[in-house]
Specification:
It is built from 20 helices and 17 strands. By secondary structure, the protein is an alpha/beta fold. The protein has three domains: 1-35 and 266-436 and 484-529, 2-enoyl-CoA Hydratase, Chain A, domain 1; 38-258, 2-enoyl-CoA Hydratase, Chain A, domain 1, CATH 3.90.226.10; 440-481, no CATH class. Strands 1, 2, 3, 4, 5, 6, 7 and 8 form an eight-stranded mixed β-sheet that branches. Strands 9, 10, 11, 13, 15, 16 and 17 form a seven-stranded mixed β-sheet that branches. The structure holds coenzyme A. Residues 109-110, 112, 142-146, 180, 182-184 line the site of coenzyme A (COA).
């Protein structure tokens, strides 16, 4: 059992906790924007039409009092589009079955898909496929956001490809259509295994009446062209005609119940609460990420019984590795301790990842790294080879990976510790996280050194005043671009979470992962020892 050395009475702890609480208040404010959808005017109008909001539809679809793990609620943050990107996505439990659920938010620009909505949809389908989770879409969308069609039209084809690939993989796809599902959107019900349409509300056609008039001269109306009644009785696209929204949700639940779905992963052991309170996770990460912290303090508040069987504790001590359980599921943990990764840490990580693959144990990466060590001694000692070895191991490891960015995630440390490009099944950030190619001051400093050398080479006098201004500007820019809201807005994670929720979120992810069998170990690339 880990013995905590954290002192909740210390000034350090109090300062860290206050800083984290301030960041969490900011996070709440940003989440509230997503929940507000298109704002009061559009919400009122939507309700006035007798319709339920996207989140209300989900709430009625999932089992009463069951948890919903929302994914990427900050999508589109910092862009010209509404926070949340006009879509709600997450993992919820329907009739005891964990499903990936998406719901268009028709109060945001008619539920149209912008480039961030597209990323969110594609991510949801990936999660369904990787983890073998039934995929349920609650559809009501004006299709492509027309002004940004160039960003979405061509890559957006994947939405329909993914639906049919899910079906081919034996993963059920369900579309509940509440309103408009025009043009490309018509292929969502078109490609789904099960389709429910709401009477007098669902409108599913390749082209609406004006487009048909333009194309062929034919006069038509919404109902005969794509109404729910027509699709249920004439075209056969609708399998069920729902009387109203509640009825559609009830039918959706019945469809999932009849899937006869069984999880194929492992059954967790009885769970045990950690010995230390989750609340103390607020006071661990220093405000200044240059100050290291002991990740065992985090593990002690996340792992069952605070138990951790450390592997190679005396070797490569800047990376902590070992075995634990979370909500009864076994995991191998890799956690940065001193920030920097040296050759020993890379070799230790490589061995540990191979061991986890041998025993088919999922891996949890707890990131707080400034990257691989630079400098003459380290280059001569083979830091590139050893870092490459660790990246090879992470890339080719077949067990499911989970990543939490707790603090720094700089340079190739982001890669070796299973950043987004390395396809962890799920990746969440704490509000204290920061990711970039390097720290803002270092990056500005590098630009300054390069600029000065270039001016000298041209025989010019270097403008020190302009240099200082450039450094300040670049530093501010890189700092802003390394913050979690910005990165979450670009879907470089699956969401920013309250550190206190880490164990719950990981438990839900591990449960979702175990809907699929853990894949067998495959080969690794050539290791350069
Ligand atoms: N792209 C960009 N903006 C869109 C949009 C789209 N596809 N669809 C709707 N919007 C905008 C509207 O311009 C409007 O903006 P405003 O309030 O600032 O004026 C807002 O979203 C709400 O649209 P509105 O038409 O008032 O909502 P509605 O609920 O009455 O109707 C639709 C919703 C989807 C039925 C209707 O907007 C529509 O038919 N849109 C175009 C659908 C289409 O042909 N899409 C092409 C698919 S490839």
């Amino acid at each position: 059992m880990i013995r905590s050395r954290l002192d909740p009475a210390s000034d350090d702890y109090r300062r860290r906790r206050e800083a984290m609480l301030a960041k969490l208040a900011d996070l709440d404010a940003e989440h509230a924007k997503a929940v507000a959808g298109g704002g009061e005017k559009y919400v009122e109008r939507h309700r006035g039409r007798g319709k339920l909001l996207a989140r209300e539809r989900i709430e009625l679809l999932v089992d009463a009092d069951s948890p919903f793990l929302e994914l990427s609620p900050l999508a589109a943050w910092g862009s010209e589009f509404q926070v949340g990107a006009g879509m709600v996505a997450g993992i919820g439990v329907i009739e005891g079955v964990e499903c990936v659920i998406t719901a268009n938010d028709p109060t945001v620009r008619g539920g149209a898909s912008n480039p961030w909505t597209l990323k969110k949809s594609l991510r949801a389908a990936d999660i369904a496929l990787q983890n073998r989770l039934p995929y349920v879409n609650l559809v009501e969308s004006g299709g492509a956001d027309l002004p940004t069609q160039k960003e979405i039209f061509i890559p957006g084809g994947r939405i329909f490809r993914d639906l049919t690939r899910l079906s081919a993989a034996g993963i059920p796809t369900v579309a509940l259509v509440f309103g408009n599902s025009t043009a490309g959107g018509a292929y969502v019900p078109g490609m789904s295994d099960y389709v429910v349409m709401v009477r007098e509300r669902a409108k599913v056609f390749l082209g609406g009446p004006p487009l048909v008039k333009m194309a062929t001269g034919e006069e038509s109306d919404d109902e005969s062209l794509g109404g729910a009644e027509m699709h249920a009785r004439v075209s056969g696209l609708a399998d069920h005609l729902a009387q109203d929204e509640h009825d559609a949700l009830r039918i959706g639940r019945r469809i999932v119940r009849s899937l006869n779905w069984h999880k194929q992963g492992i059954t967790p052991l009885p769970t045990q609460e950690p010995k230390y309170p989750a609340d103390e996770l607020l006071g661990i990460v220093p405000e200044d990420l240059k100050v290291p912290f002991d990740p065992r303090e985090v593990i002690a508040r996340v792992a069952d019984g605070s138990e951790f069987e450390e592997f190679k504790p005396l070797y490569g001590a800047s990376l902590v590795t070992g075995w634990a359980r979370i909500h009864g599921y076994p995991v191998g943990v890799l956690a940065n301790a001193q920030g920097v990764l040296f050759s020993e840490e890379s070799q230790k990580a490589t061995q540990f990842i191979q061991l986890a693959n041998q025993s088919r144990t999922p891996l949890l990466f707890l990131q707080n790294t400034t990257g691989y060590m630079v400098g003459k001694d380290y280059e001569q000692g083979g830091i590139i080879k050893h870092g490459a070895m660790m990246i090879n191991a992470v890339s080719n490891s077949t067990v499911p990976h989970l990543t939490i960015v707790m603090g720094a995630s700089y340079g190739a440390g982001n890669y070796g510790m299973c950043g987004r490009a390395y396809d962890p099944r799920f990746l969440f950030s704490w509000p204290s996280a920061k990711s970039a190619v390097m720290g803002p001051a270092q990056l500005a400093g590098v630009l300054s050194i390069v600029g000065r050398a270039s001016a000298q080479a041209r025989g010019q006098v270097y403008d020190e005043e302009a240099d200082a201004a450039m450094r300040a500007m670049v530093e501010a820019q890189i700092e802003a671009e390394s913050l979690p809201f910005f990165l979450s807005g670009r879907l470089y994670d699956d969401g920013v979470i309250d550190p206190r929720d880490t164990r719950t979120v990981l438990g839900m992810c591990l449960s979702a992962i175990n809907s699929a069998p853990v894949p067998p170990a495959a080969g690794f690339g050539v290791f350069r020892p």
